[in-house]
Structures are given as structure tokens and as C-alpha cells.
Write a structure and sequence with these properties.
By secondary structure, the protein is of the alpha/beta class. 29% of the residues lie in helices and 19% in strands. The protein has two domains: 136 residues, no CATH class; 323 residues, von Willebrand factor, type A domain (Rossmann fold), CATH 3.40.50. Helix 2 packs antiparallel against helix 3 and helix 7 runs parallel beside helix 8.
Length: 489
């Protein structure tokens, strides 16, 4: 009987199946666990990269940089916190790398902008991930670590030529209707300009910035409608009291006695790259309302909105400035509600005038259905076309919808250009908000102060609704920190 029992093979398959199932379940659990850990590790790496870039953005101020590192880490309660990572701790270390100074032209600086200090930081972040099956073998969690290194923004940057175009039609003299700013719309806009001037680099490290200094970031101010050249000084406090004399939109050629440009390209808005305060002797600071006793640019109104011509004018000036500063880049910032409302009646009181009869296309021109520049038809579309041409030429075009309505552009209701840009699309019947979005050279370059009505196209911009925050964000877009390899020296 014993021999018979030993020779009996029945039931062996049960053992084989049991062993096979156990092995397969072990392999499956291991595969799931590895995927779980890898996902957690990628979350840690992403948040570490974000923390390093956020810290580098604030350098050379190491205190603010440390605050930013924490804010963008995966630590509990911070912007990149996730339940997948437990006990995350991000630790920044600041460095002065010679290779960054040489190859990226970003010298080491102290928090005051003096030589020395740092030009990069590394962030090491540790965290643990709870294992789903590890407890079965006495390993309930796994410790992870990630490091990211970033070169700081700023320093001796690639020079930027920046043309700021401000709407000074009558609507800009009205009180700001939101809660982000108190005062008139033009005064709120000027506070944004002041914020921009405080962020930019007027000249190189250690230099005294002035009219005879090679600029890093030079800024010019434009307004529309145009003003009489001899009275433009009233917009920056040196030409007497009262408003400058507004003029009409002379198309196709601007009257030589009129101007859109209030301040030419200037880099004297701070006395040095390290200075925190704006210079009280700078005309561009005065025009921005940054000097006590000077009201800055006013909004005299007197004509409807038409901004295709000022965009063309500013772009032509940017091209000239870029030739004067080899290696520089161009940017244009347009702030308006975007609703083109200029009219053409053919009389001396019309918003749109032509130097010679018949040169104005549309309505009264030789082609009454034409909406190409210059025309009293398709005015918003003409601005989109002008901005697209600037972007195609290499200019970074930023647009800010200030109280921009989601209906309007009446001259474009049926006759207008159909344009697709990197900022959006535009066609007959579209709104001022859509016009400003399409004018931007990228979706991330369009901002709006109205988080409920005219929304910024990019989701990341929809929470940035105060004008000062918008101008700060634009500056960050001009000079960005960069991730560099760990172990850089």
C-alpha cells in the first residue's frame, strides 16, 4: 500500500498551480509596487525642479529664494504637495559657479546686486512613499531623494528693447471698477509700469545707469491717441500743467507734428542695477507716475480707440533700436480694453483723418468694402494683423486686457480680417477680448484683469489679475532661470 501511495501522481498539479499562482501574484505585486514608487519619484523630481526654478527666479535675494523653494516644494501645505509623498523636506544650497558666469553671462551677485554672492542654487528634496505590499516583508515605506540645480535669472542679461503702449482714451480716466487697484484706470496702469521698471535691469552690474551708459533693458512709452509733439512733455511733468493736446489718427502717415511716443528708449529709470528705488530724475519714471508731484501720463481722450497705427510705429522704432544694440531682443506690451471705436466722417472732427482724399480705405475710400490698413472698417482686425507682423519679425508681443469687454469691435461685425496667430484666432464678429488674445505672440503672453469676464487664454494666467502682478509676470517671462546639470562648477 505504501508503494502504491508513493507511485500515485494524483494531486501534483495542485501543488504546481499553487506555486505558479504565488509566483505570478508576487511578480504582479512587485510590478505594481515598482510603478507606484516610480510615479512617486517622478512627482518628487518635478516638484524639486519647480522649487529650484522658483528659487532661482528670486535670486540673488537668498531669503526670498529660500521662501520660494519651500512654496514650490512637495512639503505639506505647499504648492506641489501630494499625498503620494510623505514628510517631504526641500533644502536649498546656493553656489557661485564660474561656468555659469562665463557661459550664461550671469555673474555671482549678493542680495544687493554687488559682486560676489551666488549665481545658482541646488535643491535637494527628500520624502518617503508608503508601499502597498512592502509591509508583507517588513518594509512599509521607501525613502526617496532628488536634486535639481538652476542658474539664476538676472545678472548681465541679453538686452531687451521694450515698447509699452498705453490706451489713453477717455475710458482710462474712469475709476477702476475692480478690487485690485484704487484710482483711475490710467493711474493703476502706471503702477504696473512702475513695477516693470523695478524688475528690469537698466544697465550692467556695477555701472551707473544713465543716458550715456550702454543699456541692458531699455524702455519706451507710447500712447494713443497721438498727441501734439510740443505738448508731449506734459505727460511727464516737465512741460507745464494740464494735459497734452490730443490729435486724431492721421492715416496712412502720421503728421510730423504729432507723436505716439512720449518717452524714447531709456535706461535711466534706476541709478544702478542694484538700486531698489526708481530714479526721480528719469523722465520715464515721471511719465510712469513714480515721482511725487508728477501725475504721469494722463488720459485726455478726445478720440476713439484705434491702435493699429501705434503698433506699426512702435515696431518700426523697435527695429531701429535693435540695430543700435546688436544682440538685443524686442518686446512690445499693449494695454487697452481692445474695443476699437474710432469713426471716420470726413470732417475735421472725425477720429480718423487722411492726409489726402481717398487714401483711407473703406467707407469713403476708393474701395468702400476694404478692411485692410488703413481703414475705418475692421479696426480691431487691423490691430491683430499689425501685432502678428511684429511677432513674425521677432518681437515678443504681450497684451493686457484692461476691462476688456466680451462684445464690441463694431467696425469688425461683418468686415474684418481673418487671422490665426500663436495667441489665438480672430475673425469678423469677434470681441475685443479675442482681439487682444490674438494680438499676443503666444497664449502665455495674454493677460486680463477680469477673471470673470474676459479670461486669459492660458490657465496659468487666469489667476494673475492685478496689473502689478501682470507686469511682474511679464518681466519673469523676459528673464527666466534655467535648469543646469547637477554637479556644475
Amino acid at each position: 500500500m505504501m508503494r502504491k501511495f508513493l507511485r500515485d501522481q494524483r494531486g501534483q498539479s495542485v501543488v504546481v498551480v499553487a506555486l505558479t499562482i504565488t509566483a505570478m501574484m508576487t511578480l504582479a505585486a512587485t510590478s505594481v509596487e515598482v510603478g507606484h514608487v516610480y510615479y512617486a519619484y517622478r512627482q518628487l523630481v518635478s516638484s524639486t525642479n519647480a522649487a529650484a526654478l522658483a528659487g532661482a527666479q528670486a535670486m540673488p535675494n537668498t531669503v526670498t529664494a529660500t521662501t520660494n523653494v519651500t512654496a514650490y516644494s512637495a512639503q505639506t501645505g505647499q504648492k506641489n504637495a501630494t499625498p503620494v509623498l510623505q514628510g517631504a523636506v526641500a533644502t536649498p544650497t546656493f553656489h557661485c559657479y564660474s561656468s555659469v558666469a562665463i557661459s550664461m553671462n550671469t555673474p555671482c551677485e549678493t542680495s544687493t546686486g554687488a559682486a560676489g554672492g551666488y549665481n545658482a542654487l541646488s535643491v535637494t528634496q527628500t520624502a518617503s512613499v508608503r508601499l502597498w505590499f512592502g509591509g508583507l516583508i517588513g518594509m512599509p515605506k521607501m525613502n526617496l531623494s532628488a536634486t535639481a540645480t538652476a542658474a539664476m535669472r538676472g545678472g548681465s542679461n541679453i538686452p531687451w528693447n521694450i515698447a509699452i503702449i498705453l490706451d489713453t482714451t477717455n475710458s482710462m480716466s474712469h475709476p477702476d471698477s475692480g478690487t485690485q487697484c484704487s484710482g483711475t484706470q490710467i493711474s493703476c496702469a502706471l503702477r504696473g509700469v512702475q513695477a516693470l521698471l523695478g524688475d528690469l535691469d537698466p544697465c550692467g552690474l556695477g555701472a551707473t545707469c544713465g543716458s550715456n551708459t550702454s543699456p541692458v533693458d531699455s524702455v519706451a512709452l507710447y500712447v494713443f491717441p497721438p498727441v501734439l509733439t510740443t505738448t508731449a512733455g506734459k505727460d511727464y511733468c516737465s512741460g507745464g500743467s494740464g494735459n497734452p493736446t490730443h490729435e486724431y489718427y492721421m492715416v496712412p502717415t502720421l503728421n510730423p507734428l504729432w507723436t505716439y511716443q512720449i518717452i524714447p528708449f531709456s535706461a535711466d529709470y534706476r541709478t544702478s542695477d542694484a538700486a531698489n528705488a526708481l530714479s526721480s530724475s528719469s523722465n520715464i519714471v515721471k511719465a510712469a507716475g513714480g515721482v511725487s508731484g508728477c501725475g504721469g501720463i494722463q488720459a485726455p481722450g478726445g478720440a476713439g480707440t484705434y491702435y493699429a497705427q501705434v503698433i506699426n510705429t512702435a515696431q518700426a522704432d523697435l527695429v531701429t533700436q535693435q540695430k543700435a544694440i546688436p544682440g538685443s531682443q524686442n518686446a512690445m506690451i499693449i494695454l487697452s480694453d481692445g474695443d476699437a471705436t474710432a469713426t471716420y466722417s470726413g470732417g475735421s472732427g472725425s477720429d480718423l483723418q487722411s492726409s489726402l482724399a481717398g487714401l483711407l480705405n473703406g467707407i469713403l475710400g476708393t474701395n468702400p468694402n476694404s478692411y485692410t490698413y488703413p481703414s475705418a472698417l475692421g479696426e480691431c482686425g487691423q490691430a491683430v494683423v499689425a501685432a502678428k507682423a511684429a511677432a513674425t519679425a521677432g518681437t515678443a508681443v504681450y497684451t493686457i486686457g484692461y476691462g476688456s469687454p466680451t462684445s464690441g469691435c463694431s467696425s469688425d461685425a461683418t468686415k474684418s480680417a481673418s487671422v490665426t496667430t500663436k495667441g489665438g484666432s480672430w475673425g469678423p464678429g469677434d470681441s475685443p477680448c479675442q482681439a487682444l488674445a490674438a494680438m499676443a505672440s503666444a497664449q502665455l503672453n495674454f493677460y486680463s484683469d477680469d477673471g470673470n469676464g474676459c479670461l486669459a487664454t492660458a490657465t496659468a494666467n487666469q489667476s494673475i489679475t492685478s496689473l502689478t502682478a501682470i507686469f511682474h509676470a511679464i518681466t519673469a517671462g523676459l528673464t527666466e532661470p534655467r535648469l543646469i546639470p547637477n554637479g556644475t562648477t
